[in-house]
Inverse folding.
């Protein structure tokens, strides 16, 4: 289980990083458009829903969902540290002033991944959802 979720987490990290690298300047901008606010309001919820759906799709045992989601977040958290420290090199298309916002958004999304695993496992324990 650990290797599978590490791989899934790495693939997700790679997809998100490539998206910010190649089209990030269209969505992750400063100024009056408020796109950063919208990203902060939507991306963590999207990551929550995606994690919840993946746990169901892969039929992870409810007692293992919190652990699986935590493992799912590890690659992005570890490699994300490099992205934060090398923001201008990894994302030359983005304004360097966006580095702190990117960091906060990244950690908010990975927190949502971990919370999704906990919630998914607790919902089953409470009888609120079936596996």
């Amino acid at each position: 289980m650990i290797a599978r979720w590490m791989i899934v987490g790495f693939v997700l990290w790679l997809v998100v990083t490539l998206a910010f690298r190649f089209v990030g300047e269209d969505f992750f901008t400063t100024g009056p458009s408020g796109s950063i606010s919208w990203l902060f309001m939507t991306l963590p919820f999207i990551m929550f829903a995606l994690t919840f759906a993946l746990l169901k799709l892969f039929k992870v045992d409810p007692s293992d969902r919190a652990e699986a989601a935590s493992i799912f977040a590890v690659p992005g958290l570890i490699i994300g540290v490099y992205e934060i420290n090398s923001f201008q090199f990894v994302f030359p298309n983005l304004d360097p002033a966006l580095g702190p916002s990117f960091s906060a958004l990244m950690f908010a999304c990975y927190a949502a991944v971990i919370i999704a695993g906990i919630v998914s496992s607790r919902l089953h324990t409470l009888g609120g959802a079936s596996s």
Summary: Residues 2-23+35-126 form one domain. Residues 4 and 72 are 9 Å apart (CA to CA). The helical segments are 2-27, 35-57, 65-85, 87-90, 99-126.
